[in-house]
Write a structure and sequence with these properties.
Number of domains: 2
Strand order of the largest sheet: 3-2-1-4-5-6-11
Shape: globular
Structural class: alpha/beta
Radius of gyration: 19 Å
CATH architecture of the largest domain: 3-Layer(aba) Sandwich
Order of helices and strands: EHEHEHEHEHEEHEEEHEEHEHH
Helix content: 25-40%
Protein backbone atom coordinates (compact mmCIF):
# COMPACT_ATOMS: atom_id res chain seq x y z
CA UNK A 1 0.00 0.00 0.00
CA UNK A 2 1.05 3.63 -0.48
CA UNK A 3 1.00 7.04 1.19
CA UNK A 4 -0.29 10.01 -0.81
CA UNK A 5 1.92 12.92 0.24
CA UNK A 6 1.05 16.45 -0.87
CA UNK A 7 3.70 19.16 -0.69
CA UNK A 8 6.34 16.52 -1.37
CA UNK A 9 8.80 19.07 -2.76
CA UNK A 10 8.42 21.30 0.29
CA UNK A 11 10.67 21.42 3.33
CA UNK A 12 8.70 19.20 5.70
CA UNK A 13 7.19 17.15 2.87
CA UNK A 14 10.61 16.23 1.50
CA UNK A 15 11.83 15.01 4.87
CA UNK A 16 8.63 13.09 5.58
CA UNK A 17 8.94 11.41 2.17
CA UNK A 18 12.55 10.42 2.92
CA UNK A 19 11.52 8.90 6.24
CA UNK A 20 8.61 6.99 4.75
CA UNK A 21 10.79 5.62 1.95
CA UNK A 22 13.50 4.68 4.46
CA UNK A 23 11.07 2.41 6.26
CA UNK A 24 9.99 0.73 3.03
CA UNK A 25 6.80 2.64 2.23
CA UNK A 26 5.57 3.46 -1.26
CA UNK A 27 5.08 7.23 -1.63
CA UNK A 28 2.94 9.03 -4.20
CA UNK A 29 4.23 12.60 -4.09
CA UNK A 30 2.28 15.65 -5.26
CA UNK A 31 3.41 19.27 -5.55
CA UNK A 32 2.79 22.25 -7.84
CA UNK A 33 6.35 23.65 -7.45
CA UNK A 34 5.05 27.21 -7.18
CA UNK A 35 7.33 30.22 -7.11
CA UNK A 36 6.66 31.42 -3.54
CA UNK A 37 10.37 30.73 -3.14
CA UNK A 38 13.00 29.54 -5.62
CA UNK A 39 11.59 26.42 -7.33
CA UNK A 40 15.15 25.18 -7.88
CA UNK A 41 15.32 24.26 -4.20
CA UNK A 42 12.11 22.27 -4.57
CA UNK A 43 13.45 20.60 -7.68
CA UNK A 44 16.67 19.67 -5.85
CA UNK A 45 14.65 18.01 -3.10
CA UNK A 46 12.61 16.11 -5.69
CA UNK A 47 15.74 14.95 -7.48
CA UNK A 48 16.89 13.29 -4.27
CA UNK A 49 13.53 11.60 -3.78
CA UNK A 50 13.50 10.40 -7.39
CA UNK A 51 16.47 8.13 -6.63
CA UNK A 52 14.17 5.93 -4.54
CA UNK A 53 12.34 3.16 -6.40
CA UNK A 54 9.35 3.53 -4.07
CA UNK A 55 8.73 7.16 -5.00
CA UNK A 56 6.45 8.40 -7.78
CA UNK A 57 5.52 11.99 -8.43
CA UNK A 58 2.78 14.03 -10.05
CA UNK A 59 3.02 17.76 -10.56
CA UNK A 60 -0.38 19.26 -9.93
CA UNK A 61 -2.17 22.04 -8.07
CA UNK A 62 -4.49 20.85 -5.30
CA UNK A 63 -6.78 23.79 -6.11
CA UNK A 64 -7.52 22.16 -9.51
CA UNK A 65 -10.55 20.09 -8.63
CA UNK A 66 -10.64 17.72 -11.58
CA UNK A 67 -6.94 16.90 -11.45
CA UNK A 68 -6.98 16.35 -7.69
CA UNK A 69 -10.06 14.14 -7.87
CA UNK A 70 -8.14 11.76 -10.13
CA UNK A 71 -5.72 11.04 -7.27
CA UNK A 72 -8.33 8.77 -5.71
CA UNK A 73 -7.74 6.41 -8.62
CA UNK A 74 -4.00 6.06 -7.97
CA UNK A 75 -3.05 2.50 -7.15
CA UNK A 76 -2.75 1.35 -3.57
CA UNK A 77 -3.25 4.58 -1.62
CA UNK A 78 -4.46 3.83 1.90
CA UNK A 79 -3.15 6.87 3.84
CA UNK A 80 -2.80 10.58 3.12
CA UNK A 81 -0.30 13.08 4.54
CA UNK A 82 -1.50 16.47 3.36
CA UNK A 83 1.23 19.11 3.77
CA UNK A 84 0.70 21.23 0.64
CA UNK A 85 -0.28 24.82 1.46
CA UNK A 86 0.52 28.43 0.76
CA UNK A 87 2.98 29.11 3.55
CA UNK A 88 4.09 32.31 5.27
CA UNK A 89 2.30 34.60 7.71
CA UNK A 90 3.61 37.87 6.27
CA UNK A 91 2.92 36.98 2.64
CA UNK A 92 -0.76 36.56 3.53
CA UNK A 93 -0.93 40.35 3.97
CA UNK A 94 0.10 40.91 0.34
CA UNK A 95 -1.58 38.02 -1.47
CA UNK A 96 -4.61 36.90 0.56
CA UNK A 97 -6.33 35.03 -2.25
CA UNK A 98 -3.38 32.67 -2.66
CA UNK A 99 -4.17 31.41 0.86
CA UNK A 100 -7.87 31.07 0.19
CA UNK A 101 -7.14 29.12 -2.98
CA UNK A 102 -4.47 26.75 -1.67
CA UNK A 103 -5.35 26.42 2.00
CA UNK A 104 -9.14 26.44 1.85
CA UNK A 105 -10.15 25.28 -1.63
CA UNK A 106 -7.16 22.94 -1.93
CA UNK A 107 -7.77 21.45 1.49
CA UNK A 108 -11.43 20.84 0.66
CA UNK A 109 -10.39 19.04 -2.51
CA UNK A 110 -8.07 16.80 -0.49
CA UNK A 111 -10.90 16.01 1.91
CA UNK A 112 -12.94 14.91 -1.10
CA UNK A 113 -10.09 12.64 -2.19
CA UNK A 114 -10.07 11.16 1.30
CA UNK A 115 -13.83 10.62 1.16
CA UNK A 116 -13.55 8.94 -2.24
CA UNK A 117 -10.95 6.53 -0.81
CA UNK A 118 -13.31 5.32 1.91
CA UNK A 119 -13.42 2.69 3.34
CA UNK A 120 -9.85 1.85 2.26
CA UNK A 121 -8.34 5.00 3.73
CA UNK A 122 -6.79 4.31 7.13
CA UNK A 123 -5.85 7.87 8.10
CA UNK A 124 -5.75 11.47 6.87
CA UNK A 125 -2.94 13.50 8.50
CA UNK A 126 -2.64 17.20 7.68
CA UNK A 127 -0.50 20.20 8.59
CA UNK A 128 -1.93 22.90 10.79
CA UNK A 129 0.18 25.57 12.46
CA UNK A 130 1.08 27.16 15.78
CA UNK A 131 -0.17 30.41 14.21
CA UNK A 132 -3.76 29.34 15.04
CA UNK A 133 -3.10 30.44 18.64
CA UNK A 134 -3.06 34.04 17.42
CA UNK A 135 -2.56 36.57 20.16
CA UNK A 136 -3.12 34.09 23.01
CA UNK A 137 -1.11 35.08 26.07
CA UNK A 138 -1.61 31.91 28.12
CA UNK A 139 1.54 29.80 27.90
CA UNK A 140 2.28 27.13 26.93
CA UNK A 141 -0.19 26.89 24.05
CA UNK A 142 -2.47 23.90 24.62
CA UNK A 143 -4.71 22.13 22.13
CA UNK A 144 -7.50 22.77 24.65
CA UNK A 145 -7.11 26.56 24.31
CA UNK A 146 -9.59 28.65 22.34
CA UNK A 147 -8.25 29.53 18.89
CA UNK A 148 -10.96 31.74 17.42
CA UNK A 149 -9.06 35.03 17.12
CA UNK A 150 -6.44 34.63 14.35
CA UNK A 151 -4.24 37.64 13.67
CA UNK A 152 -3.30 36.69 10.10
CA UNK A 153 -5.14 35.22 7.15
CA UNK A 154 -2.67 32.33 7.11
CA UNK A 155 -3.69 31.47 10.68
CA UNK A 156 -7.36 31.80 9.79
CA UNK A 157 -7.02 29.36 6.90
CA UNK A 158 -5.20 26.81 9.05
CA UNK A 159 -7.87 26.99 11.76
CA UNK A 160 -10.52 26.71 9.06
CA UNK A 161 -8.82 23.54 7.81
CA UNK A 162 -9.13 22.05 11.29
CA UNK A 163 -12.85 22.84 11.42
CA UNK A 164 -13.46 21.55 7.91
CA UNK A 165 -11.68 18.30 8.69
CA UNK A 166 -13.62 17.87 11.92
CA UNK A 167 -16.84 18.18 9.92
CA UNK A 168 -15.71 15.58 7.37
CA UNK A 169 -14.67 13.24 10.18
CA UNK A 170 -18.05 13.68 11.87
CA UNK A 171 -20.11 13.35 8.70
CA UNK A 172 -18.23 10.62 6.88
CA UNK A 173 -16.29 8.77 9.57
CA UNK A 174 -12.88 9.79 8.23
CA UNK A 175 -10.03 9.17 10.66
CA UNK A 176 -8.05 12.43 10.65
CA UNK A 177 -5.29 14.13 12.63
CA UNK A 178 -4.14 17.75 12.44
CA UNK A 179 -0.61 18.71 13.46
CA UNK A 180 0.16 22.21 14.72
CA UNK A 181 3.82 22.63 13.76
CA UNK A 182 5.96 25.07 15.74
CA UNK A 183 8.73 27.00 13.88
CA UNK A 184 10.42 24.17 12.03
CA UNK A 185 14.05 24.51 10.92
CA UNK A 186 16.83 22.28 9.59
CA UNK A 187 18.63 21.19 6.40
CA UNK A 188 16.71 21.78 3.16
CA UNK A 189 14.68 24.43 4.99
CA UNK A 190 12.57 27.24 3.57
CA UNK A 191 14.32 30.47 2.48
CA UNK A 192 11.63 32.63 4.10
CA UNK A 193 12.34 31.26 7.60
CA UNK A 194 14.57 32.98 10.13
CA UNK A 195 17.36 30.37 10.27
CA UNK A 196 17.80 30.57 6.49
CA UNK A 197 17.56 34.36 6.33
CA UNK A 198 19.91 34.99 9.25
CA UNK A 199 22.53 32.49 8.07
CA UNK A 200 22.61 33.92 4.56
CA UNK A 201 22.85 37.52 5.68
CA UNK A 202 25.53 36.85 8.27
CA UNK A 203 27.60 35.01 5.66
CA UNK A 204 27.15 37.94 3.24
CA UNK A 205 27.94 40.46 5.99
CA UNK A 206 24.50 42.03 5.62
CA UNK A 207 22.41 43.33 8.54
CA UNK A 208 19.58 41.17 9.82
CA UNK A 209 16.19 42.52 10.92
CA UNK A 210 15.51 41.78 14.58
CA UNK A 211 11.81 42.24 15.20
CA UNK A 212 10.27 43.61 18.38
CA UNK A 213 13.81 44.77 19.21
CA UNK A 214 14.72 41.16 19.98
CA UNK A 215 12.05 40.71 22.68
CA UNK A 216 10.74 37.48 21.17
CA UNK A 217 10.85 33.78 21.94
CA UNK A 218 10.14 30.90 19.58
CA UNK A 219 9.64 27.19 20.14
CA UNK A 220 12.16 26.27 17.42
CA UNK A 221 11.69 22.62 16.45
CA UNK A 222 14.21 20.60 14.47
CA UNK A 223 13.02 18.85 11.34
CA UNK A 224 13.95 15.33 12.52
CA UNK A 225 11.71 15.74 15.57
CA UNK A 226 8.86 17.04 13.41
CA UNK A 227 9.20 14.07 11.05
CA UNK A 228 9.21 11.61 13.94
CA UNK A 229 6.03 13.21 15.30
CA UNK A 230 4.35 13.22 11.89
CA UNK A 231 5.04 9.53 11.29
CA UNK A 232 3.93 8.68 14.82
CA UNK A 233 0.67 10.51 14.15
CA UNK A 234 0.22 8.68 10.84
CA UNK A 235 0.68 5.36 12.63
CA UNK A 236 -1.86 6.20 15.36
CA UNK A 237 -5.24 7.08 13.84
CA UNK A 238 -7.92 8.25 16.28
CA UNK A 239 -9.65 5.40 18.08
CA UNK A 240 -12.53 5.11 20.49
CA UNK A 241 -15.83 6.91 20.81
CA UNK A 242 -16.64 10.31 19.37
CA UNK A 243 -15.63 12.10 16.18
CA UNK A 244 -12.47 10.43 14.78
CA UNK A 245 -10.52 13.70 14.55
CA UNK A 246 -7.63 14.82 16.76
CA UNK A 247 -5.28 17.84 16.85
CA UNK A 248 -1.79 17.81 18.35
CA UNK A 249 1.02 20.29 18.95
CA UNK A 250 4.40 19.30 17.56
CA UNK A 251 6.96 21.63 19.11
CA UNK A 252 10.16 21.47 21.10
CA UNK A 253 8.46 22.56 24.35
CA UNK A 254 11.38 24.90 24.92
CA UNK A 255 10.95 28.51 23.75
CA UNK A 256 14.27 30.15 22.91
CA UNK A 257 14.95 33.90 23.11
CA UNK A 258 15.65 35.39 19.69
CA UNK A 259 19.00 36.76 20.92
CA UNK A 260 20.15 33.26 21.86
CA UNK A 261 18.99 31.86 18.52
CA UNK A 262 21.06 34.48 16.70
CA UNK A 263 24.08 33.80 18.93
CA UNK A 264 23.98 30.08 18.10
CA UNK A 265 23.85 30.89 14.37
CA UNK A 266 26.78 33.30 14.79
CA UNK A 267 28.80 30.57 16.49
CA UNK A 268 28.01 28.06 13.74
CA UNK A 269 28.80 30.54 10.97
CA UNK A 270 31.89 31.89 12.74
CA UNK A 271 30.94 35.52 12.28
CA UNK A 272 29.03 38.17 14.23
CA UNK A 273 25.72 39.47 12.95
CA UNK A 274 24.92 43.08 12.19
CA UNK A 275 21.59 43.80 13.88
CA UNK A 276 18.84 46.20 12.85
CA UNK A 277 16.19 46.48 15.57
CA UNK A 278 12.67 46.78 14.18
CA UNK A 279 9.10 46.74 15.52
CA UNK A 280 6.94 43.63 15.55
CA UNK A 281 5.38 43.13 12.09
CA UNK A 282 1.61 42.66 11.69
CA UNK A 283 0.59 39.02 12.16
CA UNK A 284 3.64 38.10 14.25
CA UNK A 285 3.47 37.11 17.90
CA UNK A 286 5.99 37.73 20.65
CA UNK A 287 6.23 34.15 21.89
CA UNK A 288 5.31 30.59 20.99
CA UNK A 289 5.47 27.67 23.39
CA UNK A 290 4.00 24.23 22.68
CA UNK A 291 2.27 22.18 25.33
CA UNK A 292 3.04 18.69 24.03
CA UNK A 293 1.45 16.63 26.81
CA UNK A 294 -1.16 15.15 24.46
CA UNK A 295 1.31 14.28 21.70
CA UNK A 296 3.67 12.73 24.28
CA UNK A 297 0.84 10.66 25.72
CA UNK A 298 -0.85 9.52 22.51
CA UNK A 299 2.01 9.50 19.99
CA UNK A 300 5.11 8.98 22.10
CA UNK A 301 6.39 12.29 20.74
CA UNK A 302 9.70 13.20 22.36
CA UNK A 303 11.66 16.05 20.73
CA UNK A 304 15.37 15.65 21.40
CA UNK A 305 17.22 18.22 19.32
CA UNK A 306 18.41 21.49 20.86
CA UNK A 307 19.30 24.50 18.74
CA UNK A 308 22.93 23.94 19.75
CA UNK A 309 22.71 20.63 17.87
CA UNK A 310 20.32 21.55 15.09
CA UNK A 311 21.65 24.93 13.96
CA UNK A 312 25.18 23.68 13.10
CA UNK A 313 23.55 20.95 11.00
CA UNK A 314 21.53 23.56 9.15
CA UNK A 315 24.50 25.88 8.61
CA UNK A 316 26.63 23.00 7.29
CA UNK A 317 23.86 22.12 4.80
CA UNK A 318 23.46 25.79 3.82
CA UNK A 319 27.16 26.13 3.04
CA UNK A 320 27.17 22.93 0.99
CA UNK A 321 23.97 23.72 -0.93
CA UNK A 322 25.08 27.26 -1.74
CA UNK A 323 28.71 26.21 -2.23
CA UNK A 324 30.03 28.69 0.32
Amino acid sequence: MAVLLTGAAGFIGYHVAEALLARGEEVMGVDNLNAYYDPRLKEARLARLASHTGFRFRRLDIADRATVAALAGEAGIDRIVHLAAQAGVRHSFTDPLAYVTANLVGHAHMMEVARALQPRLKHFVYASSSSVYGGNTKLPFSVEDRVDQPISLYAATKRSDELLTFAYAEMFGLKATGLRYFTVYGPWGRPDMSAYIFTGKILRDEPISVFNKGEMRRDFTYIDDIVAGTLAALDHPPLGAGTPHRVYNLGNHNPVPLAKFIAVIEAAVGRKAKLELEPLPPGDVKETFADIAASERDLGFAPRTTIEQGIPNFVAWYREYHQL
